[in-house]
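Propose amino acids for all 419 sites.
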């Protein structure tokens, strides 16, 4: 019997499906399928945030997934039909044009994101390459090392009622083999859990929205537990050559009110916050610090960046500060506000604008960190974007099916076939 001939991919868009699906918090979101042949499908669903930056585009018009889908079907899909595959900028420009607003308030940034990524996936299928290769070609730079894992192991803030004020306590793990990174990040997660059980023997330990532990600790106590756990895992001898260091996402806009940062036991002025975070970086050798100040304070970001000691590599990352907006990132680059930018496609709504941020960061010598949202689906396009963008890190949590899905996909991309 002769083998079935390979399916002929379509050269242009002619069928797109959208449907309402649900994220890891049970909130409705959108899934898009861009058909690229009789059985070739580029599929993508969109995650959603809880500690959202105020400069993000609108997620869904009037908060309604149904309205976003209706708008796409009635006003957008017609314009996309007939567009050749591989024309990412044209596709994304059409999304913006048809939406007709500055912040995707007609279509919804989450609908735009799912469309943009599903089209990228379909285009990669048509070209016979992986999504990360397609994204890498759009970035236009040679391959870089695999990303570090920026793994949230202890949750607080708005992701974990009853936990610390600081939103995320992170294991930052870098190793030559991605598999080693996964194993070491899981080991830190377990060690943190073990220590929390020891310290709070009668407390009911839970897990937060991003799969990290939740326990009734204060901020510095949580950081001590994280730091000791990183140390124990590093010194175990099981992960030779791996760098395993603590990190934080302070999500400081959530702590900021009336000009001060409010913690359970005190409140700090912006200058005091600069000193406080600087001292945490020194004391705990932090590899990663995200959003230590509220989302308009480019100046305090700049002060902390200037105070970083050149001998210690710390990614000082803007999330709510930049909201993946090329315009806000340009301002940060001009003011030298940080040395790294967090990338969340649905903060801006298209792959092309996210790529513009990648190119700006590349030109400025800054690192990028490709990030999940606290409400996720099991889709794993994030892994391909992190690889294609050449990001220094993938921030996607460690445990929980929707988080580990991204890490497992990076293992596939790494081609680590056995063991
Ligand atoms: P979000 O939070 O996905 O809830 O916005 C994640 C973060 O602040 O990094
Ligand atoms: Zn953040």
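Proposal:
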């Amino acid at each position: 019997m002769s083998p079935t001939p390979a399916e002929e991919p379509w050269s242009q868009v002619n069928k797109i499906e959208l449907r309402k699906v649900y994220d890891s918090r049970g909130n409705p979101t959108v899934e898009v399928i861009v058909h690229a042949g009789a059985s070739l499908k580029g599929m993508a669903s969109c995650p959603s945030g809880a500690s959202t930056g105020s400069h993000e585009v609108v997620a869904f018009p009037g908060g309604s997934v149904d309205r976003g889908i209706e708008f796409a079907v009635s006003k957008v899909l017609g314009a996309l039909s007939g567009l050749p595959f591989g024309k990412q900028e044209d596709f994304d420009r059409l999304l913006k044009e048809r939406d007709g607003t500055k912040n995707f308030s007609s279509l919804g940034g989450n609908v735009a994101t799912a469309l943009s990524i599903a089209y990228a996936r379909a285009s990669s299928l048509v070209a016979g390459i992986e999504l990360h290769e397609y994204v890498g070609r759009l970035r236009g730079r040679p391959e870089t090392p695999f990303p570090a894992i920026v793994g949230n192991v202890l949750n607080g803030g708005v992701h974990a009622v009853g936990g610390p004020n600081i939103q995320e306590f992170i294991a930052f793990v870098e190793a030559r083999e991605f598999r080693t990174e996964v194993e070491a990040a899981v080991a830190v997660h377990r060690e943190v859990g073990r220590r929390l059980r020891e310290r709070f023997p009668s407390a009911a330990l839970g897990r937060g929205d991003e799969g990290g532990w939740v326990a009734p600790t204060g901020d510095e106590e949580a950081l001590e537990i994280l730091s000791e756990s990183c140390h124990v895992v590093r010194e175990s001898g099981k992960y030779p050559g791996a760098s395993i260091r603590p990190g934080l996402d302070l999500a400081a806009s959530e702590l900021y009110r009336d000009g001060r940062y409010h913690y359970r036991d005190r409140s700090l002025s912006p200058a005091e916050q600069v000193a406080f975070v600087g001292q945490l970086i020194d004391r705990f050798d932090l590899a990663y610090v995200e959003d230590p100040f509220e989302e308009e304070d480019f100046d305090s970001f700049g002060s902390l960046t200037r105070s970083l000691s050149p001998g210690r590599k710390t990614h000082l990352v803007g999330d709510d500060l930049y909201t993946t907006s090329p315009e806000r990132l340009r301002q940060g680059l001009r003011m030298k506000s940080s040395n790294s930018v967090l990338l969340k496609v649905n903060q801006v709504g298209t792959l092309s604008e996210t790529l513009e941020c990648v190119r700006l960061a590349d030109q400025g010598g800054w690192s990028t960190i490709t990030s999940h949202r606290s409400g996720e689906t099991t889709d794993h396009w994030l892994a391909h974007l992190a690889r294609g963008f050449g990001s220094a890190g993938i921030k996607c949590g460690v445990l929980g099916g929707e988080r580990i899905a991204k890490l497992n996909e990076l293992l596939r991309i790494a081609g680590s076939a056995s063991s």
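Residues 49-52, 249, 251, 319, 371, 373-374 surround 2-phosphoglycolic acid (ligand 1) (CB under 6 Å). The chain is about 40% helix and 15% strand.
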